[in-house]
Amino acid sequence: MSTEAVREGGAPARAREAQAAGALLEAEGLVFVREDRVLFEDLGFALHAGEALQVEGPNGSGKTTLLRVLCGLALPEEGEVRWRGTDIRRARSEYLAELAYIGHQHGVKGELTPRENLAVACALGGRRDGVEADEALARMGLSGYEDVPCRTLSAGQRRRVALARLLLTPARLWILDEPFTALDRGGRRDIERLISQHLAQGGLAVFTTHHAVALDGAEARVVHLGA
Ligand SMILES: Nc1ncnc2c1ncn2[C@@H]1O[C@H](COP(=O)(O)OP(=O)(O)OP(=O)(O)O)[C@@H](O)[C@H]1O
């Protein structure tokens, strides 16, 4: 059985206090059991505007599962996730309108070009004013690759296409599963800056990673899963 420790986050009472103080994303008393194995239990935290949460733990400890619970894609045995004080199961469409989720499988379509992938993402998830797709691709180091099929790009370049969506999305909450995977050092730094800017503008971010992360002007709180 996996054990779970929460370095930051904690008791339901603390989550309720944080809500009173204006927390946007709250988890309270989350329990998730997979085939008799407790991945996490009594897990809670509260995130305010401008705050980030880093989910750490060894392979198989439940990081992706926790992100899926936070997105409403997996149901916990117990506990609830609230956005702006309302259980996400009761305010699903409002929650999804403010959420950008980039999963481990990042969803970039290989037969589409980077430009087309971003057009689809914007059609589905909305678009932030004032940023063009080509500008986002350039910022992610993809100038010159706008019109090639994504299947011809490297793993790191495809990950950059996926992350370019973050420059275009109007979403307030970013939930990112291993955003640094396959990126070189410059790419990792770009994503750290992107997350930092998002937080500075009042956004929230939850991410998993096996890397040390250096945010500018902010420090991510840490939830550690597993033994
Ligand atoms: N669809 C599924 N059906 C059954 N078991 C699953 C499923 N998805 C994940 N698991 C199991 O749940 C556990 C947690 O998986 P999860 O993907 O959340 O871990 P993780 O911490 O994200 O791992 P990694 O660091 O390898 O990405 C693992 O033991 C895994 O085998």
Automatic annotation (TrEMBL):
It comes from the Bacteria. Residues 25-225 form the ABC transporter domain. InterPro entries: AAA+_ATPase (IPR003593), ABC_transporter-like_ATP-bd (IPR003439), ABC_transporter-like_CS (IPR017871), ABC_transptr_haem_export_CcmA (IPR005895), P-loop_NTPase (IPR027417). Pfam families: ABC_tran. The lineage of its organism: Bacteria, Pseudomonadati, Pseudomonadota, Gammaproteobacteria, Chromatiales. This is Heme exporter protein A. Coiled coil: none annotated. The keyword DNA damage does not apply. GO terms for biological process: cytochrome complex assembly. Keywords: ATP-binding, Cytochrome c-type biogenesis, Membrane, Nucleotide-binding, Translocase, Transport. GO terms for molecular function: ATP binding; ATP hydrolysis activity; transmembrane transporter activity. It comes from Inmirania thermothiophila.
